Structures are given as C-alpha cells and as structure tokens.
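User: I'm putting together notes for a lab meeting next week and I want to include a structural view of one of the chains we've been expressing. I don't have a solved structure, so I'd like a prediction I can at least talk through. The sequence is below, exactly as it appears in our construct file.
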Amino acid sequence: MRLKITFKVLDFRPHIPYSYQYELSSWLYKLIRKIDPEFGQFLHTKGYEYKNSKFKMFNFSNLHIPHRKANDTNIQILSKEITMWVSCLSTKLASVLIQGLLVPQIYTIGNQEMQVRLKVVNIETKPITITSEKVRLRTLSPIFVQDEIGQYLSPVNEGYESIFIQNLQDKYMVAREQGWFLEDATSQPISFKLLTKTPKKNGILIKANKNGQTHKIGYKYSFELKAPEAIIKTGLLAGFGGQNAQGFGFCEILN
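Assistant: Thanks for the context. Below is the predicted structure for the 255-residue chain, given as structure tokens.
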C-alpha cells in the first residue's frame, strides 16, 4: 500500500537543507514507535533478515514542493502545502502509520539551522496495481546500489544490473516468508534496461552516528523492468536498491 501525506506548512517561506531525508526517516520511526513500540524497535534495530542482508521493507519519496526556490545550500519552501509518499508491503505497518498520522500534532523537519513545522491535513491510501510484466519506471528519489567493496555504482557500471536484480529478488523472498505474496515467482526471469542516457548523480547526507554524517550516492533515471508482477510490486512498495528506509529507491510507473 502507498500513503500520500499532505502537510500544511506552518512557517512563512521556511528553508530546509537539500539532505532532509534522514530527518524524514527519523520522523517515520518515531511515529511507528509511538503507536507500537515493540514493532518500531524491531524495524529500527533489526528489520527482516534474508541470507546476510536486513531489509526494513518500507520506502518513502522526497518531499513534493510545488513552489520552491533552490539556493546554493538549501531549499526555500514557497508552497502552503507539500506532500510525500510512504509505501510498504506490510498491512500492519500501514495500519500503524495511519494511526500515528491521525493524531493531531505538529512535526518539525530539518536540522538545527534550517527547519519547517508541518501539520498533516490529509492522508490518502493507494494500492499498487500491476497489469503487465513489463513496466517503465522513473525514480522519485535516487536508487542506491553498492558493490561488495563498498563502491557506489552508477547504472552504467558493470555489475549494476546483477546487484539491482539480486536485491529485488531477496526482498521478494522476505515478502514470501512473511506471507505478503502467495505465488512463487522465483523461477521466472528478471531483466533491467536503462532508459536514461545520462543518469543524474544525487548524494544524500545520512547521520551515521553521534559523531558525524556519511554521504551516500544514488542515481535518478528511468528504466524498464521485466519481471513477474509480484516482484515489480515488491520494488514499488519496499523500494529499489538499498537504503530504502533512508529515502532511496522510490519509483513510479510511467504511463
């Protein structure tokens, strides 16, 4: 399920840093823990394990700010309302998020230097419907792919496709183990085709620990994915690539 959240901007033309995804991620975790502390702690510290990987199995988009002014170091919000999307495969997580969002309160997003106060004014739910085993997709937040030695990969790099596909297959296996999908699509082929000539490099600052931040690199582009419907749906709801719970890998289907 996908949730579209509409916020009212409570400040007059506030500024936020370009890298605000860590703050959005922290806000979502706090929201989950407030309603279901045990489940929230599980997601934040552990997540769903498969082989040697751990997945949070939820994803969120960048903020959609219809009217904005881009500066050298920040974004000035000129809109009175802004939106974002949150997606997840788990009906439990969707229910917890909705419960948390329905509680009237003011949220602050940003860092100590630049922040905006927001109030939820509308929540819409939207199921994902897949009608074909070949879809064209575009990124609404950069896709993060890293190789075994920690190198950030562009979709034009050798080995990108295999890592991208393996990550997607592993998430699907988690979804199967959790009972979110009943059909077995593990034997069917998956292919990835880059449609963008020059993918756009996009870095996001993530708070690594109490002592500092780490700069993670992803890429924004359009691509074609051939896969069983359940696997396409897994990517659309859990996110493509890595670091999905930090705001990487949120995509939409192109008409």
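A couple of points you could mention at the meeting. The longest strand covers residues 115-126. Residues 20 and 110 are 6 Å apart (CA to CA).

User: Perfect, that's what I needed.
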